[in-house]
Every structure is written in structure tokens, then in C-alpha cells.
Amino acid sequence: MSKPVILCVDDEKIILESLKRQLRTEFGKNYSYEFAEDAEEAMELIEELVEEESEEILVIVSDWLMPGKKGDEFLIDVHRRYPNIVKIMLTGQADEDAVERVKEQANLHSCLNKPWKEQELVKVLHAGLKK
Predict the structure, then answer these.
(1) What percentage of the chain has pLDDT greater than the value 70?
(2) Does the pTM exceed 0.85?
(3) What is the CATH number of domain 5-130?
């Protein structure tokens, strides 16, 4: 049986590497970890995992400011199709309107500011995984 998935989306590879290291340190082999560099790639990955491979995505950690579709729009799109996925936004510069929009339209679990504290990310992820 396959492991549930945590998906991270950010256009900066160094951020994805940092998330990968922190997730593996905290959760080990309890989950599968997937990574995408923009919203379009992430949506294709979600569709492949959920619809073709019947994988369960538990949490998405997404940047806000990315080329193409911004994180708020992406998470709202995800919520419309997959409402049970827990959504966390990472941002260094999201405007408050974008954060509010995701809270209202996509049931945003949490928004963390970059640079985040590892303990804060872990705490938010544990809470999201309990949902």
C-alpha cells in the first residue's frame, strides 16, 4: 500500500530542498513527498497522483508568489476539485487580501511567512495532518 503524500510547491529550488530536508527529518518514511516548481506542474502532479494512481494527498504547502498562477489562485482551484486536502501557504510577500481570499474560498489551514521557523512549520503540519 502506498503512503499518503505531502506536496510542496515553490518556484525556488532552495526552498523545495529546505522543505524536503525538514519533512524527511520530522516525518521520515511515514509519507511520500512530492515537489513542483509552479502551480501548473503541481496541478498536473495532483491529477496524476489522485486520479490515475489513486494516491491520497494529505497536505499541500504552497508558495504565494510564483510565475504564472499565484498560490492563492492555485489553492482555490485545488480546493474546488479536492476539498479534503489541507492547504498551507508559505509567503514572503503575499498581500493580506490574497491570504483572506484563500481562507474564505479554500479553507486555508495556515499561512507561514518566509523565512519560517522549522518548529512552526512542523507544528502546523502536525495539526494539518490530524484533520
Answers:
(1) 99
(2) yes
(3) 3.40.50.2300
